[in-house]
Amino acid sequence: MPHGAEEEQCQDNRAGLDGGGESESPLGARAFEPQFPVRYFCFGISPSTFDGLLDRASTPISPMVIRGTMSTKQKFRISSALKDIIGRDLITNDSVAMFELVKNSFDAYAKNVSIEFDENSIIIVDDGKGMSRDDILSKWLFVAYSAKRTGEEDLNLSRDYRDEISIRRGYAGNKGIGRFSCDRLGERLELFSKTRNSAQVEHLVVDWTSFEQDAKTEFATIDTILDAIPDFPKPNKIKPPSKSGTMLIIRDLRSTWDFNEIDSLRAYLAKLIDPFQTTKGATISTAVVDEDWPKLEGPVGNDIIDLLDGKTAKLTVRLRQGVIRSVLHDRGALIYEIEEPLARTLEALNDFDVDCDIYFLNRSAKHTFTSRMGVQPVQFGNVFLFVNGFRVFPVGEPNDDTFGIGRRKQQGVSRYLGLRDILGKVDVRAPQGALPETSSRNAGLIETPSASALYEFVMKNAVQRLERYVVDVNWADALDQASDDASGLKSDTARARIIRIVQALAGSKNITLLDYDRELIDVVNERSSEFEESMTGLAVVAQQTGDEGLLARVERARLRYEEQKRAAEEARATAERETAARREAEQRARAAELRATEAATKLERVEKQAQMLLHAQEREDDELTLMHHQVIIYATEVQALVRRSLRRLGEATPPLDSIKDDLEQISWQNSRILSVTRIATQANFKLNADKIQADIIQYLEEYTTKIATLYGDIRKATFETSGLSQNMTFSPIDISIVVDNLFSNAGKADARHINFLTRKAGNGLLEIVVSDDGKGIDTTKVDSSKIFERGYSGSARGSGLGLYHIKHVLEQLGGSIRLDPERQGDKAQFIIRLPKGGKDK
């Protein structure tokens, strides 16, 4: 209370309260030092009653609390220094200050904001609804008052203007202090504004330095000048508003705006306003006077959507009225679409609309982003947050970890996505004031239950769900990391991984599977090691979605698989019997050899027999025995398949799809028989007939040059190893089929020479370029995109199985084959890619 106020009489007229002067209290003498005069404060009770209360008090009461019964009501006084506290001291970044003014323009329904930089001034023009004289007096000049927060912002909009605009659910700003960003940028401000129905332009002049001269001057006593003029002034390059809008001219700039500063501002506004087409229909442009800087002229924006859409995995999550719908695409292919209710722990978001678009950045996407944007993704940012159309700063900045993604990554580098692995945005439409920002505008959202629920929602329903797919599918295939198309998802192993992901979702009681890619989520090949597990997953998916067609295909494939298993078991049993009989015969032969000395008349025959057995031992008797065992297995299985196909062909209504599958199996097994036979007939070629751990490059070279040329039309084959090797586990028989089929296709094209060239492909991968001198591929008759599909043949002599078998063998190995995109004309030139693991010799 100001000095002297204690001498004034209390103006309280309540009954029973007597005015009184200054008086010493016995309590005062007991509780305080004698020199303190004690006065009664006007509480509406008598002095004697108040003394009684003090007598019972256990703690001495400060003399500052005790006043005389005479007092007056007083008001706060506001220093002119308040301007700096809520202006330059609070908004410490020029870019943030500029953004605050831009947000105010869009809050006023502006569709276009233009910014012009001159030597010592900045002009900001928008085509929003503008302000009347009453708006300026009752809102703009009313410090800390926000009509947006009170809901009065748009009450005076005309009916026709309401029909032209879309009334928003919330505003970018609502604190009533964003206007002081003008003070941050310059010492003086001229504001021009006009509403649609006004015939004149309101003109306000503010000299911010007048608030800085004496802190003892009261804020409200410093004058601003408000008048009216016929029209807006005309800037040098940008256009003034036409029907309505606002123009800010900020003079005597406090900072220098050179090329780098303006360029940084444009990049800042690009991320703040429209990095993911969040504010559709809103544009920002800049212009510079007296400088030839073309890069700084024109609209602000970027094309992140064009860079990433269809080129990497993307998860889209939409929350509407407590229901979450999530759609996952990977390089244009739909993986799944699901729907689920919002968790009870996140009920604070029931009135929110939330849109999440999160992209996984594989090596291909990172390379494309850097080359197009001129900056690495890690330097651009990660997951941006927008509330009611405008970005919340600094969420998404390179070093920001608001959602806890980086902290989680530290717990498991190979199990979790990190800030370097994703890029995206979270766009929230929330009731006004539900997600308040900090006053400084550069520290994110204020910690509220709604903000915490939002962070948890984004982490669980967007980041972690994308993470599950990326870790289990994308990261599991090193070759697929460098691809920007979905070809790598079509192998049996990749499809089996995708089936496991979709099965887990379809099996959840709270999740409804709405859609999925019928091509990717389908029956995998019976020869795949993932076949049985995939059948279980597909059955779950089919039942969840009511897909009777898929369920029927699953059942047919399961029956074929069981029949093949039985046939294989029968073949194996037959082979074992044949092997046992052969060994018994060999033992008898050896016994006969021992008895040969007993019969002189049989000496010559015994010696010849011994020579034959010796020759067999020179060719590795055990190895030939094992190869013979394999031939018997494959031949027996072929015989069983042929019998079954003939039986089905004789039926009245044969299941033709099953017969086609059987015939494909017959072709495959016969290829293996031919490969085993060719290997077995070469005495100097030694290998185990099952899987081996060896240098696959060396094996391919030896088989190509020593064995494959002995059969068919190709008589010359060259294999350039380039001094490279690749140690890995593989089946010699299956790799031989790859070479045999390449030779066969080349021979059908009248080729006489085939060449294999080994080269490095980066990231530890190896490639083999296969070319021949044949007629090539006639693209006018052959669809080159289908040549690896089962049953498709570009030749009348072909079965459509050769290239399909090659593709299947290589995919089972973790590799791939494709037409060389750099081949000349119609030349038949392929690129075989082997998985990581090779090294220089």
UniProtKB/TrEMBL annotation:
Domain of life: Bacteria
Chemical reaction(s) catalysed: ATP + protein L-histidine = ADP + protein N-phospho-L-histidine
Example GO molecular function: protein histidine kinase activity
Record's keyword terms, sorted: Kinase, Transferase
Ranges for domain Histidine kinase/HSP90-like ATPase: 730-838
SMART domains, per the entry: HATPase_c
Record protein name field: histidine kinase
Catalytic activity, EC: 2.7.13.3
Region (Disordered): 1-28, 570-591
One Pfam short name: HATPase_c
